[in-house]
From TrEMBL:
Gene3D superfamilies: Dihydrodipicolinate Reductase, domain 2, NAD(P)-binding Rossmann-like Domain. InterPro entries: Gfo/Idh/MocA-like_OxRdtase_N, Gfo/Idh/MocA_oxidoreduct, GFO_IDH_MocA-like_dom, NAD(P)-bd_dom_sf. This is Gfo/Idh/MocA family oxidoreductase. Signal peptide: none annotated. It holds the Pfam family GFO_IDH_MocA. It comes from Robiginitalea aurantiaca.
Amino acid sequence: MPKKIRLGILGGGGDSLIGVLHRVAAHMYDSYEITGAVFSPDLQESLDFAKEIDIPLDRIYPDFDTLIAEEMKLPESERIQVCSVQTPNFLHFPMAKKLLENGFHVICEKPMTTTYEEAKILRDTHKKAGSVFAVTHTYTGYPMVRQMRELIKSGALGKIHKVDARYYQGWINPIIHDAEKRASVWRLDPAKAGISSCMGDIGVHAFNMIEYTTGLQIKSLLCDFNYLYTDNLMDVDGTVLIRMDEHVKGVIRASQVATGEENGLAIRIYGEKGGLVWEQERPNFLYKLSDAEPLQVYKPGHAYNSDLSLDGTKLPAGHPEGIFDAMGNIYRGVARAIRGEAFDAGEFPTMTDGVRGLNFIEATVASHKSGNTWVTLD
């Protein structure tokens, strides 16, 4: 068994959902051990949290710069190898950039940065560093999403005609309808969240899912946002028309104010031979549609699935796998890359996906602000 990879964590303390998700994922395949961290801007809070989850306190640092400085004093055989960035959006870029410049591998929450320009700078920094860089578009880790990708790659749908991805949530309703709350939450503050809330937080997942599963790139888009209130500076709902080729078009629908919705990410891909449908809230079912055959249902763990899908399946058929397993698959792929082992390109989203995501987010904002016009992606 290879020695565990030394993992540093930035953010993700307390009751953070993202923090729990990353920690469980890191432990899932016994590939990582948490070696150091800055869980909170408050040192005592970080120390208290480290005690709570029972990790050593000697490398819990007061801030990010101290973590870098102290870790770099250690022999390479002892220092943190990879850092997981789980902080609010505005900290992703400066942290990831400094980590790369100091030779660390990086696992970064999305959006990778708050601007497309920052994303391109980070891409250049990454090229010079030669480190492993992963963006946690978690849903790419689901076995049936990977099966969807492999089926499309094999030609099961023929030429793609139409794509339809949606991501509906209702969680921000209590905040957006309260003037005091919507003025104070960081996700609706452009200085901390970036230029987009809805598209930057969840719409970009739908965008990533389309490009991940189809292997095609979105070339241009037209976007219409809804801010709901004139004093709200961030989009909380949006619809995006997309063009992937002259005869390959589709739509991305995203909302944080879809009342009653929970985590409604879903994707539908239609081609000349059939269609594929997957929904995040029912992740173990991939539906294949056809005019000529009965509905087919793919499920994880069966031998008929692709190697990529089966590699991401931990349990025998019939045992549900969920979001923790999906994130665990991403961490597993990153571990393989760090160790120099062979891995499939579909095992984790990379710097390229992060840059594409920021290009998408800024294009949606530009399209809306220009009066809902078509904008070309790089």
